[in-house]
Amino acid sequence: DSVVPISAATAKFSRNSTWSNVPxxxxxTYTVRQLMxxxxxxxxxxxxxxxxxxxxxxxxxxTNRMNQTxxxxxxxxxxxxxxxxxxxxxxxxxxxxKLGRALLLYHPEITEFTSEAAxxxxxxxxxxxxxxxxxxxxxxxxxxxxxGLKTGYIDAGGSSIILTGSKSxxxxxxxxxxxxxxxxRDKEARALLVNALRAISPW
Length: 203
Hints:
It contains seven helices and nine strands, in the order E-H-E-H-H-H-E-E-H-H-E-E-E-E-E-H. It is an alpha+beta fold.
């Protein structure tokens, strides 16, 4: 419920249509929870910047913390911004799996946000960028539940997803990076997650 200040630069960035954004204003009041929803459900890039500035002072300082965490998790990754927009960000699928696993282990409450199909922000309804959450795609098994984790897209990197779901108390994570389309990304991610869940708990 902490209030997050919005800098003039971040407010301006939030109106850049190049990125997935939820418009923010310097004169409005936003909570961490609201910006987490904007970031995790709608992929709001400016929300990520605002949270980075709140927690670390500057986005540059936050990306330094990101890279320190990557080293601690033994990830093969280099981050240069808080929202994954630069082509200079580098990460492998295995490293994203390590990051997703750590997030789910140490902050399981993240699924409160990643499992939301939609949320309301200043009178506008935004829908999850994860089509599995919106039930556009499914695992076609009533006992398997998909509750995250994050999608992404940039021109240099294509369509990507960290997909996670559980069945019979066991969880699996599927990573697809660099697909040519959202449809191909989701098809590949579904196949990976279905096979993983079958391996740990036969259907």
